[in-house]
Amino acid sequence: MESTIRLLILEDAPVLCDMLTDRLTGIFQDRTQNEITGRLAQFKELAFSDEFDAVIVDLNVLDANAPKVAAVLHDLPAPIQEKVIVHSSEPWSKLKGLGLCKFAIIPKAASRFELKGALKKVGAVD
User: Fold this and answer.
1) Structural contact between residues 73 and 84, judged by C-beta atoms closer than 8 angstroms
2) Is residue 1 within 8 Å of 39, Cβ to Cβ?
3) DSSP state of 2
């Protein structure tokens, strides 16, 4: 029996949350446990208080814009940073300017294949 994959998701758009969870279910059936928040403040609390296999992050959420979210990602401890997947529609030049190239990056409309590839890159799945 395969183990449960624990994910922390920072995303404030209900449609995108549904899309992500549908794609995750399509890949892993019922093996994911998702903690979803649309607020950066709650994300920070969760990221430091619990252990997740991967962290999927939108850069523009209810209480923060891309530079604020990027700053929080850079301040996370290295073991958490290694699990970050940036889920963004921002242009590559902006992501690069925010110093986010060290993270796995997928588009907002990522396919199941792209999503699974990013999860492999951060070590959440084999």
Assistant:
1) yes
2) no
3) P
Q: Are 57 and 105 in contact (CB under 8 A)?
A: no
Alpha-carbon torsion angle 33, 36, 41, 43, nearest 10? 40
CA angle 3, 57, 100 (to 5 degrees): 115
DSSP E strand stretches across the chain = 5-10, 32-37, 54-57, 84-88, 104-107
Kindly report whether the global pTM for this prediction surpasses the value 0.70. Answer: yes
Q: If 0-12 CB within 10 Å is exposed, 13-18 middle and 19+ buried, where does residue 94 land?
A: middle
Q: Give the total residue count for the chain.
A: 126
d(CA 118, CA 5): 14
* Per-residue pLDDT in tens (0 to 9) along the chain, 126 residues: 578 999 999 999 999 999 999 999 999 998 999 999 999 999 999 998 878 999 999 999 999 999 999 999 999 999 999 999 999 999 999 999 999 999 999 999 899 999 999 999 999 998
